[in-house]
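Practice problem: predict the structure.
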Amino acid sequence: MPSYPKGNRSVTYRPSRPRKRKVHKKESEEPEETECPSSSRRKLSSVDVFDAEVNNAHTYRIIEFVSVFNMLSQLLICRYCKKDVKFTEAGARGFGFKIVVSCSCKESTCINSGPCINTGFEINRRLVFVMRLLGIGREGVNLFAGLMDFGTGLSNTAYDGIVNHVYNAVKYVFEVVCKKAVAEEEKLNEKKEKPKSDFHVSGDGSWKKRGFSSLLGVTTLIGNLTGKVIDLIVKSAFCKSCIAWKSKEGTAEYTEWYETHHEECLANHSGSAGKMEVDSIKEMFSQSEEKYGVRYVNYIGDGDSKTFQGILNLNPYGDECPVIKSECIGHIEKRMGTRLRNVKKDKKLGGRGKLTDVLIKKITRYYGLAIRRNVNSVQDMRTAIQATFDHLTSTDAKPKHQNCPAGADSWCKWRKAESIGKTASYKHPSPLHQDVEKNILPIFKDLSKDELLNRCLGGYTQNANESFNATVWRLAPKHLHSGAKIVNIAAFIAAAVFNEGYNAILMIMNKLEIVIGLQANNLAQSYDEKRMTRQDRRSMECSKAARTARRMQQMAQNEFYEEAEGLLYAPGIAD
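Answer:
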C-alpha cells in the first residue's frame, strides 16, 4: 500500500517567530500552500481573560458516608460531656444534605454538606450545569446518582428551576460575547479601510433531527473577519406546555392560563423545518441596526436554500444598500463531486480505469483548488479549471498544458520538465477514459460559468459555521430528546465557548454563583491552550496532506475489495 506523510505531534506553533518546518512533500501535482495560524488561535488570541473569583480552598471529594463517619464517631468525643458523638444524615435535597452531629448532653448540630445558594445546595446547580456541558439531562443525572448511590437525584421541579437559572446565565454571557465580537469585527473593518459598520457575514442553519422534519433548528451568523458568532436564533415549532393544555383549549381555564403563558411560549415558528433558516436569517438581518448598529451587506451562503432570496424580498437596508451574495467555496467544490457521482451512476461509468471514487475525489479537490488559488479573478479561475480538465486528458501525442502554470515551481510536471528542456522524455500518466471525458466535459463547462464564479470572488467559506453546528449538537445530542430551552442553552454555551474559549465557562459559573475552585480554574486555562495547539497541528500542511492521503488510500482499498468481492450489500439483494 502507498505510504503517506505524517504530521509531527511534537511541533507547536510559536506566534512570536514562526518556525520553518520541513514539510514532507507528497508525490502529487498540487503546489504547496502557505501555513498560517489556525482559526482557533486567531480567535482565542484576542480573548480578554476573565478575572474569575477563585477560591483555592474550595474542593469536592467523594466519600462513603457510613465508613468515614463511623470511624470518626469512634475517634471523637463531645467536648462538654466527654461522651461519644454520633453522625447521621438529614435534610437531603438533591446531592446536598445536612450532617447531624449529636451526643447525650445537648441538642444536635447540623452542618451543611457544602455551600448553599439561597436555599439550595450549590452542588445541585453545579452538577446540572456540568452535565449540560456533557450533553446529559435529568435522566442521566438521576441514573448517575442512583448507580453511584448518591441518592434519588433531582426532582422535576428542582431540575427545571436550576435549568431556568442556567438559561438566564448563559443568555447573559452570550449577549456579552456577541457584543464583543461585533466590536472586534468593526475594528478589523477599520484596519482594512472598509466601512466600519458594514459586515460580511456567513449564515447557516442546523436542525435537531436529520431529514428536514425537525421541530427545532439553530441558525447562526458569523463575522467573516473575526470568525466569531455575532448572532443566533433558535426556532421551535412546538411548546411542551401548549401540548399539555391543548385538550382544554376553548375553556375559561385555558384562556386564563394562556394570558400568562403566551409571552414565554417556546413555540416561535410555524411552517416547515426548512423555513426555519430563512425566517431566522431574515429576522437577524432586520434587527442588526437596532441591536448592534451595523449592516450585513454581504451574505455568504451555501446555495442549498432560498435564504438569500428571502433577504432580497425583505430588503432590510433599502435600495441604497442592497445585500450582495457570496458563495461558500467548500460547497461549490462539493457540487463537482455530487455531479460526478451522479453521472457515474446514470451513465454507468464505474469500474477500473473509469470514474472511480478516488478519481472523483481527485477531480473535486483540483476544482476547489483552482477556485481557491484565484479568488481575485474570474478569468483566472476559469483558466485554472480548464487547465485541470486539459491536464487530465493530455497524452504524449497530444499534450494540452497551455493553461497550466509555467515555471519550475508549477504543479504541472510537464511544465516543470519544459522549464529544464526535458519534455521529450516526459511520459504522461494514463488520460481519462473517452467515455468519462465526454460525460464530464459538460459538468466542467457548467461549473465554470461567470455567474457562479463571480460569487466565489473573495474566497469565502462557511467552515466556521459548520464547526459551530457540530459544537451545538455535542451539547444537545441529536439522538436524545431536548426541548427548546435546552437547545437554547446548548447554542448559547457553544457560541460563548466558540468565541471566547473556556474562559466563557468561568463567566457563566460566576453568573450562576457557583464557586470556582483551583481545579476548575486550572482546567479552563489549560483547555484553551490545548485547543490552540491541537488546531495548529491540524492546520499544518503535512497534517492536511496526511489526512487527504488516508482518505484516498481508504477509498482505493474499499474499491479494490468491492471489485474482488462483488456486490454484497444493496436493497433487495437477497431476493
